[in-house]
């Protein structure tokens, strides 16, 4: 029973005294508020799906795009970039054995002379002579009696700078594992490593010796340093310049021949001269060992770039290493002569040694292999791409086809079906068959 009489209503309720207008009730919606896409990064975008067919085609296209331009610049320019290099190579291995005594010159064998110039018909004449039992100067300034090979050759056309002078060895395996590791990096850096530190290191077996009943380490130790190439070369001398006809030297330097990164691997040694001995094959330069005399002091490996070049081992048995260079002056056509102090033996291991005078291009030296290799790789990619595309169009394979799973192709005699651990990813439970 209500306390309020019928027909009587209270008009002075709380709502009647509320000055705030009544707001319409909002309806709930699952639609995200404006701007949420920006907050959640739900922008329109493209997300490619890498199916095997598209991935094969994309990979083949990428390899073709990489290979063909390089092959074009290497071998297909007019003339090919590699063919723009001018060079002459002279093999002087048998000079001391076969060349006549200086000043009589004799033509070098045709197999010992190789050249590449713009005019293929350019005649390159090369002759040699030898000087036996003559005074030669070693890298440390010591004078000894030795042999020299004198090469005289023609340059049929001007060679633009930079002019690079290399020596080339064949059948010399610097890439042998034991040889390539045979050095002590800390010693080369300048640390005074003791005989005990060097013993048993990678320098073995050339780690040191006994001198005056005292064990001393070799400096530098190891097979690489001991077998350093020690032939030395004079700068080319122009024999027939115009006008006065006096011979002129085309000056070349042995500075700037090593990589800057290699120079950081070497430092001036902290050894005392009395604490170390030179490697066995350095006996000509240091017959009395290391002393405090200026001529017999241990070499400064930080400044000796020829040593740094030799210590960077080659990956193939035939290699060239930079000996001298001239980055400014062109080598004009004419007759030139170089004198070689012949020390390094190559006949013992059936190798050869040559000098190489060459220019270069943006693609490097004269090497047709690079262009041919890239053309071959590009051609193989085109062929394989065509085969894969044809296979996909003629007999497309359904993606995710379970018939190709290994357990659905079990050999006869073996039950088909996946092993529990491999297929289901769970352990077997009671009741599993």
TrEMBL record:
InterPro entries: CDC50/LEM3_fam. It comes from the Eukaryota. The keyword GTP-binding does not apply. This is LEM3/CDC50 family protein. Pfam families: CDC50. It is found in: Membrane. Keywords: Membrane, Transmembrane, Transmembrane helix. Residues 1-33, 410-433 are annotated as: Disordered. It is a multi-pass membrane protein. The chain crosses the membrane at residues 369-390. Its main location: membrane. Residues 1-27 have a biased composition (Basic and acidic residues). Belongs to the CDC50/LEM3 family. The keyword Membrane applies. One of its GO terms (cellular component) is endoplasmic reticulum.
């Amino acid at each position: 029973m209500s306390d309020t009489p019928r027909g009587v209503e209270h008009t002075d309720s709380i709502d009647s005294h509320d000055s705030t207008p009544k707001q319409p009730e909002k309806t709930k919606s699952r639609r995200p508020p404006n701007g949420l896409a920006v907050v959640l990064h739900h922008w329109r975008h493209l997300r490619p799906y890498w199916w095997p067919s598209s991935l094969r085609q994309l990979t083949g296209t990428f390899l073709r795009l990489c290979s063909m331009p390089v092959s074009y610049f290497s071998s297909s320019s007019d003339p090919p970039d590699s063919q723009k290099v001018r060079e002459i190579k002279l093999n002087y291995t048998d000079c001391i054995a076969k060349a006549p005594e200086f000043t009589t010159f004799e033509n070098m064998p045709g197999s010992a002379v190789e050249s590449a110039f713009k005019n293929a018909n350019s005649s390159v004449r090369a002759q040699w002579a030898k000087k036996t039992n003559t005074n030669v100067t070693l890298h440390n300034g010591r004078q000894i009696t030795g042999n020299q090979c004198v090469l005289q050759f023609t340059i049929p056309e001007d060679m633009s700078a930079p002019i690079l002078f290399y020596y080339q060895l064949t059948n010399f395996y610097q890439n042998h594992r034991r040889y390539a590791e045979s050095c002590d990096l800390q010693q080369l850096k300048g640390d005074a490593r003791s005989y005990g530190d060097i013993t048993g290191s990678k320098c073995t077996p050339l780690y040191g010796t006994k001198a005056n009943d005292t064990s001393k380490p070799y400096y530098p130790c190891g097979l690489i340093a001991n077998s350093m190439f020690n032939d030395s070369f004079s700068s080319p001398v122009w024999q027939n310049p115009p006008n006065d006809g006096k011979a002129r030297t085309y000056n070349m330097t042995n500075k700037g021949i090593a990589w800057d990164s290699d120079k950081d691997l070497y430092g001036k040694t902290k050894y005392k001269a009395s604490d170390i001995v030179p490697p066995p094959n350095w006996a000509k330069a240091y017959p009395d060992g290391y002393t405090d005399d200026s001529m017999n002091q241990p070499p400064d490996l930080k400044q000796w770039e020829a040593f740094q070049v030799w210590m960077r081992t080659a990956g193939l048995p035939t290699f060239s290493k930079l000996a001298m260079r001239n980055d400014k002056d062109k080598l004009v056509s004419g007759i030139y002569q170089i004198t070689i102090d012949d020390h390094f033996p190559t006949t013992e291991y059936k190798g050869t040694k040559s000098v190489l005078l060459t220019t270069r291009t943006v693609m490097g030296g004269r090497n047709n292999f690079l262009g041919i290799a890239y053309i071959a790789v590009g051609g193989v990619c085109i062929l394989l791409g065509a085969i894969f595309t044809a296979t996909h169009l003629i007999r497309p394979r359904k993606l995710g086809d379970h018939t190709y799973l290994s357990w659905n192709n079990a050999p006869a005699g073996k039950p088909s079906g996946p092993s529990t651990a491999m297929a289901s990813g769970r352990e077997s439970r009671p009741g599993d068959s």
